[in-house]
Amino acid sequence: MKRIRVLIAKPGLDGHDRGAKVVARALRDRGFEVIYTGLHQTPEQIAAAAVQEGVDAVGLSILSGSHGTLVPRVLDEIKERAGTTIPVFVGGIIPREDIAPLKEAGVAEVFTPGTSTAQIADAISDIVKKG
User: Fold this and answer.
1) Are 121 and 91 a contacting pair, CB within 8 Å?
2) What is the pLDDT of residues 68-77, one digit of tens each?
3) Any idea what DSSP says for residue 109?
4) Neighbour-count burial of 123, counting CB atoms closer than 10 A to its CB (0-12 exposed, 13-18 middle, 19+ buried)
5) CATH superfamily name and code, 5-130
6) Taking the model in full, what pTM does it have?
């Protein structure tokens, strides 16, 4: 069975990456292949890495409140570079009222604080399997 390849990225100026690293490690421990791009990535860098690595999904960790600006830019860059969509999930400090607009923009799933790593892994697996 093919391992799911996931890119985990920290877009923007947010300098806190503990949550992203916890999720990356948990996904790896569940059998995912994880590529972590590190801090301060631009939407262009994230999309380029996603396409170059041939990932099945992209995870964005955002704690800075800039999700409304950065996430749509990442989605647009991925579509432009890949010629198709790659499922994108977002985790971090996302106000409830911002979840629906993110999903309407094309985000596959939004994970807020308190979501278990098992729930995240299961949701990503389901999203990727549905294609």
Assistant:
1) no
2) 899 999 999 9
3) E
4) middle
5) Cobalamin-binding domain (3.40.50.280)
6) 0.95
